[in-house]
């Protein structure tokens, strides 16, 4: 049984106005089609699913709601009468395609697809970027032929000069716009002749990122530091375990359970690419693990996720993000205490392993330790830290 209903969504925009949407439910799955109108909560008649007459544009908006309901109902009836099965998502897509498809409609569909893959953090990032683009464009609808080179250049300047974003962050915004445009062309929602990117159009310039890790001396300062708070000691312990295990990512680290340690090895599945990993437990890790084992209250090695529902990926991601932020703040205080001027964070543990390993370990072995899917990724990553040959070449010329 399929149902449709006009509803007011609960999340307001930056002006504290709430979006109106048509809710479609089929086979216990729900999807929303936003009609592009926002109102105050008090202006919504929930019982009738319409805007109250007190709203100055009530007649226009209610006509728009009814037209959307009619179209949705027609599509649902057609789907139920046909022998070929259609999901509520495919029905929603066909309704949107039937209109003059715009860029932000493509954004909405792409965000839903990202969520369906369980990548809730990525969905939030794309949503935040595209909301900023929408605010800059000052339009709830932006058709693909309106995304011009001039608009993209002005948006880039706005991000750099007004919002004060770093170049790499600005690049990520522009890549998000380009990605959605490319998807729209592939889905036949947009025509390629209006494409503003590439040769002769707007080009995205990606600068090399600089990865800086700690030196051996700096790690030894951390290993020997005293007179720090219990919270700081805990953050440092987590950092050191990450470093000792070749830079295991904090999200994977917090999910580790005692049952992952078998026969003096750590065995776990990476969250980023689902690769199975097996690593020997280094001697330096053992006293840290033993100190946590003695006071363990659950199967988790570290207790930050013990009260989180493991089947709720969004709750899990939010908790990991909060914990990481707290760790980084405490690590920064420790760095100040011992005189480390480099920015100390959880992710720097991975860079530190790369910096210290340098060119001492064969690249294929580093690929296994980093858990990279491609050796090319390892070569590009490790090139940030393999500088001996370049230094020797420089000395050979200038030391005469």
TrEMBL record:
GO terms for molecular function: DNA binding. Keywords: DNA recombination, DNA-binding. SUPFAM superfamilies: DNA breaking-rejoining enzymes (SSF56349). GO terms for biological process: DNA integration; DNA recombination. Residues 209-395 form the Tyr recombinase domain. It comes from the Bacteria. Coiled coil: none annotated. Belongs to the 'phage' integrase family. PANTHER family: PHAGE INTEGRASE-RELATED, PROPHAGE INTEGRASE INTD-RELATED. This is Recombinase.
